[in-house]
Amino acid sequence: MNISFESPRQAEIVTLITLLDEYQVPLYPAESHHGIDMEALCQPNVLFAVARDRAGKALACGALVLNSEYGELKRMFTLPEQRGLGLARGVLTLLEEEGRRRGCSRFMLETGYLQPEAIAFYERCGYRKRGPFGDYSNDPNSIFMQK
């Protein structure tokens, strides 16, 4: 497995993000969707990590949006058949390490309450539930977490 920072503007990455959207969109009403688009993912303050297998196939991805107060995790996704292999943890670790190197000491995220596997993963990685942050407001469909 190789995990590195890459541009999200690649067909394989677009496919991963599309699969993430196809999974999440039916779960929640439109006002509860907080994914960011490709233009936002390509901004200079965004770190985008990709996990690839030995053959170079993209298996997982994630982003960290850095701002002056915290870094926000976005677009974390692992192909379903690749889950449980440590890919998400590897992507998360790389994002957090680089975020810290750039001066970020607080990491936040928003996920949906209908994603218990994601919530459990983040809790295992040291994230704890908290209230809304940034531009988010209370949403019964959202779980907010911080590390």
UniProtKB/TrEMBL annotation:
Please list the coiled coil stretches.
none
Any one Gene Ontology MF annotation carried by this entry is: acyltransferase activity, transferring groups other than amino-acyl groups
Q: Sorted alphabetically, which keywords does the UniProt record give?
A: Acyltransferase, Transferase
**SUPFAM superfamilies per the record?**
Acyl-CoA N-acyltransferases (Nat) (SSF55729)
This protein's superkingdom? Bacteria
Keyword Iron-sulfur annotated: no
All copies of the N-acetyltransferase domain together span 3-147
Pfam families listed in its UniProt record: Acetyltransf_1
What name does UniProt use for this protein? N-acetyltransferase
